[in-house]
Amino acid sequence: MPVDLSSLTLDGRAVIDGRRVDAADGRTFDCVSPVDGRRLTTVARGGPADIDAAVAAARAAFAERRWAGQPPAARKRVLIRLAERILAHADELALLETLDMGKPLRYAKSVDVHAAANCIRWYGEAVDKLYDQIAPTPETALALITREPLGVVGVIVPWNYPLLMAAWKIAPALAAGNSVVLKPSEKSPLSALRLAELALEAGVPPGVFNVVPGFGPEAGSALALHMDVDGIAFTGSTRVGKQIHVMAGQSNLKRAWTELGGKSPNIVFADCPDLDRAVQAAVAGICFNQGESCNAPSRLLLEASIKDAFLDKALALLPRYQPANPLDKDTVMGAIVDRTQLDTVLRYIAQGQAEGARLLAGGQAVQPVPGGFYVQPTVFDGVTNDMTIAREEIFGPVLSVITFTDAADAVRQANDSIYGLQAAVWTRDLNKAHAVARALRAGTVHVNQYDEDDITVPFGGFKQSGIGRDKSLHAFDKYTELKTTWIRIDSPL
Which Gene Ontology molecular function entries are recorded, alphabetically (predicted)? Predict the structure, then answer.
């Protein structure tokens, strides 16, 4: 069906110091919808001059303590108002997400928008409940251990969950009293720009939260290299994450926190307590968000004795997950974010076949909406861990099936990866579940489910899946400095 833009006002200008502004040099880029290939609007192409302006605004706001100087309870009230503003504009924000990056509208609203609002509300609620510490000193001293905001925090987020990834980072950063400069992906900048307007409406002072759209080598690099940025938080590919760490070191040794790629193993033992549930989780997990998730369970490790039965059930489910118009209420898998990413997914599929994996289903680009970018959910059998499709992050609905013989073999193959973001174990044996979960090198291990969690638990990975954790109270560690104040007491009683 046609995409109706009549209810939307699409403003692609940056938000710096509380104002909508064009790029300093006037450059723009086209924002194209993957739903049908149409140009949605033009967006300011921010560069170093725009990053300089945003950082200067953020630094001035921090130095003047417009936000950092407010009591935690005051920041709490503003963040809760922001969460309420997000929910009040849920339909608008969900439509922006869908038009911009192709995810089904039903999930853009029920998952992304609501989770973003919940995240911002949760950190607002948390900030006036955090206590500092007093060290166990002798009577001749009083030692205070206090948290202080870093100062100016740069945030770079990916295109797959534009609003939610922004919330995961800006919520604890703002709650702690920092000023923020956000660089959204050039593939999906619209919801971040609207979020900045809603923040101003909620009472976040001008200069405290700035959004500069643009390309990574221009705006992103300028932010990571900036000498007046105190910390950089990044979610994206491992390749770019490594560059972020290099730039942080090349500049002012700013704190750098990176949440990167994954190739998550989903391990199903023959004693799985509910095979149908495991099948549903495996198929839904690789198809959710079109497979464009760093934690997608893209390696399915099946005990050899149940492989055929499992795959029969999985292939029978695939018709439910065929791509369709993301704006239709019943669609469960939408469009790939753009032509470049679609071509990347198709290249991996071709490489899997060339390296000897057996294509069981899918593998073709389709066009349920003329002009859009869509690919069928794809399943490969006979995959080994030395194949490219088992080692590299595809970021598409491509499932690699690997067999194992016993628990030790499953752990060995699961850990044979540069990544360590998430994993899952399906077994009715509690001892086995604990032993395998403990042996897996992953930031999160799911048992008899996949991807259930909430804002109270940390998200992040081992190895080249990144450094630091989003979500939970642990996220405050990224956006604060610890200060010791040692007070001498000369005359104890």
Answer: aldehyde dehydrogenase [NAD(P)+] activity
Which is the catalytic residue, given 287, 294, 303, 393?
294
Q: Does domain 5-260+466-482 have CATH number 3.40.50.720?
A: no
Q: Is 294 a catalytic residue?
A: yes
Phi and psi, residue 34, nearest 5°: -75, -10
DSSP state of 204: P
For residue 172, give both structure tokens: 């604890």
Burial bucket for residue 11 (CB in 10 Å: 0-12, 13-18, 19+)? middle
Other Cβ atoms less than 10 A from the Cβ of 457: the count is: 12
Helices (H) and strands (E) in the chain, counts: 15, 24
How much is the average pLDDT of 472-476?
Answer: 98
At residue 1 the predicted structure's pLDDT band, cuts being 50, 70 and 90, is: very low
231-235 vs 255-259, strand pairing mode: parallel
Q: Which residues pair with 267 in a beta bridge?
A: 301, 425
Q: What is the pLDDT of residue 6?
A: 67
What is the mean predicted confidence (pLDDT) over 109-122? 98
Q: Where are the domains of the chain?
A: 5-260+466-482, 265-447
Let me know: does 302 contact 404? Beta carbons within 8 Å.
Answer: yes
Q: Active-site residue 393, yes or no? A: no
Q: Model confidence at 491, in pLDDT bands (50, 70, 90)?
A: confident
**Domain 265-447, classified CATH 3.60.15.10, yes or no:** no
Residues 401-426 have pLDDT tens digits of 999 999 999 999 999 999 999 999 99
Nearest CA to 179 out of 187, 190, 188, 170 is that of 170
Burial 26-64 (b: 16+ CB within 10 A, else e): ebebebbbbbbbeebbebbbbbbebbbbbbbbbbebbee
**pLDDT greater than 60 at residue 112:** yes
Phi, psi of 360 (to 5 degrees): -95, -30
Sign of CA dihedral 12, 17, 22, 28: negative
**Whether the Cβ atoms of residue 134 and residue 86 lie closer than 8 Å to each other:** no
Cβ within 8 Å of residue 97, ≥6 positions away:
103, 108, 112, 113, 162, 163, 188, 191
pLDDT of 9:
81
Active-site residue, from 97, 186, 218, 259:
259
**Phi, psi for residue 418 in degrees, rounded to 5:** -75, -15
pLDDT confidence band for 4 (50 / 70 / 90): low
Q: How far apart are CA 341 and CA 357, in angstroms?
A: 22
